[in-house]
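User: Fold this; tokens only.

Assistant: Input:
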Amino acid sequence: MNRDVYVIGVGMHRFTKEYVPIRDMYFTAGVEALKDAGIDFRDVGYLYNGYIGGGMMEGTGYAKDLGLTGIPVVHVENASATGSSAFREAVWAVSGGASDVAMALGFDDMARMGMARRKPAPGVDKRVPSFENTLLPAGFFAMWAVRRMHEAGTTVETYAKIAAKNWNHGRHNPMAQRRADHEVTAEEVLAADMVAYPHTAMMACASGAGAACAIVATEEWAKKHANGRPMVKVTASQLCSEVYTDGHIFMGAVVGPAYSTERTAKLAYEEAGIGPNDLSLVHVHDAFPIEELMYYELLGICGPGEGDKLLHDGETQIGGRIPFSTDGGLIARGHPGGPTGLAQVWDATKQLRGEQGKIQVEGAQNALVHMMGAGSVCAVHILQKA
């Protein structure tokens, strides 16, 4: 990056399954981020809207509620990595000198999204659905989980413990969709309805609606608007797609090749000048527990096959060596699509400022946020308490 970039403001509308007009959620997240930054919308030089569902110009229309200032407004879409990609665009707009201040605002409502139905090719029996039209994400992750059990001896109890941890982190996050009124146990998670073995409904990510926003700026703007709070610097911004290998799968796998996370994280560590042992907390694309478990290893937090022990030793919960999904993750905080990656930035920024109350990671210095997009793209950002 050519210029240092800082997160100066974050805002959210709580993720929810209840109906809330998307325009209202958009406005709430944007205004909260502006208030948090201590600036006006007229100070923003670029706006990147991240959303998967909705109309082609929907984000541009919602932006008018924040102000008509003539700035570029761009729609970003990159599957689950949409919010992360919008954030990256804002970071690079500031780093590259296009603007001193840029905003990334993600929003979506999964209730209005439908699975695309593709017509069969000529000559194909309509009674035989194609592979890619029938195998949903839950199926991909279930197969990944069973493969892990076969190869490493991972148990269903391990997956349940990851989900219970994230439910309990989400209990104390006011922006989380799932907020249990009691401490969730692994036994309770296992007793929930089965989705796709070995994952139960309480292990599956919560899909609802919501909005999240982050504003980034130059060091000069960050210092001017810090208001006595620690400044949060973006020390790495990496986005990678798949690389061809022998035996490559071209079926649009949701999980994606393991090397995608390893490669992207390696580039991020090099850019930030730190290693996995320097991280204070981590956010990942934990749509199902198998993902979080595998990312313990793929991000270099522990060695291959050591993720189960890391979890069982309590190292990945708040109070442990390297807390994961401190705001509840996709499982409890929720995963509406467009805003998910920006919700990670919301928590990471507040963690580094020391503002997260019961879910605060003591002495947080570096936070890594990771998202996969349809298994084909991987985004990794590292934020640092400056």
